[in-house]
């Protein structure tokens, strides 16, 4: 058993899949310049790794190590994307109407979040509805801030595909260019 070859196969496939996961995330978030560049490195590494395994199919451990590199590469790619926290999230926070005196919309604005406030009717009465736009990197601190001020908040988040208008537009355009 050639340990050096097994390590090389693992590292090559790990690198390929990590880049593949990052490239996929970049593509989904609309990074039109960097995603194709990452894909060039990705496919070069892929061809190298696959040829190493296909030329040594007599040893099934090579295939197992290749698959292990694949699995670990996906995990690390996801962690890197979480660390980079690319893009924006839109959070809807639905609050009991009795929280109006907390002035949560103003507190959130003071922390730099874009907030649109409206009111709706829920099962148990009137509700304050906050639509909050935030960079993904601030997602956890946004949830923490909302929960500190109103632990009964019902929170839903999603990633917007397109953002236009409002005071955030200039910030978003600067970051995407």
Description of the molecule:
With about 180 residues, the protein is an alpha+beta fold. The protein has two domains: about 5-85, no CATH class; about 90-160, Alpha-Beta Plaits (2-Layer Sandwich). It has six helices and four strands, in the order H-H-H-E-H-E-E-H-E-H. The protein has helices at about 5-30, 35-55, 60-85, 105-110, 140-150, 170-175; strands at about 90-95, 115-120, 125-135, 155-160. Strands 2-3-1-4 form a four-stranded antiparallel sheet, covered by helices on one side. Strand 2 and strand 3 (about 125-135) form a beta hairpin. Helix 1 packs antiparallel against helix 2 (about 35-55) and helix 1 (about 5-30) packs parallel to helix 3 (about 60-85). The longest helix is centred in the first third of the chain and has 26 residues, at about 5-30. The model has no long low-confidence stretch (mean pLDDT about 85). One of its GO terms (cellular component) is plasma membrane. Keywords: Cell membrane, Membrane, Transmembrane, Transmembrane helix.
């Amino acid at each position: 058993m050639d340990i050096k070859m097994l390590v090389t196969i693992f590292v090559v496939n790990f690198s390929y899949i990590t880049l593949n996961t990052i490239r996929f995330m970049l593509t989904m978030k609309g990074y039109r310049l960097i995603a194709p560049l990452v894909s060039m490195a990705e496919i070069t590494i892929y061809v190298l790794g696959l040829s190493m395994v296909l030329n040594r199919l007599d040893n099934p451990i090579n295939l197992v190590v290749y698959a292990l590199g694949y699995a670990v590469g996906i995990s690390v790619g996801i962690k890197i994307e979480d660390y980079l926290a690319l893009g924006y999230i839109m959070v809807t926070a639905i609050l009991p109407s009795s929280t109006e005196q907390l002035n949560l919309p103003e507190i959130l604005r003071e922390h730099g979040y874009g907030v649109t406030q409206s009111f709706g009717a829920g099962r148990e009465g009137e509700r304050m509805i906050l639509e909050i736009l935030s960079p993904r990197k601030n997602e956890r601190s946004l949830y923490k801030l909302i929960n500190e001020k109103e632990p009964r908040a019902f929170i839903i988040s999603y990633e917007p595909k397109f953002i236009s208008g409002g005071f955030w537009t200039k910030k978003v355009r600067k970051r995407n260019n």
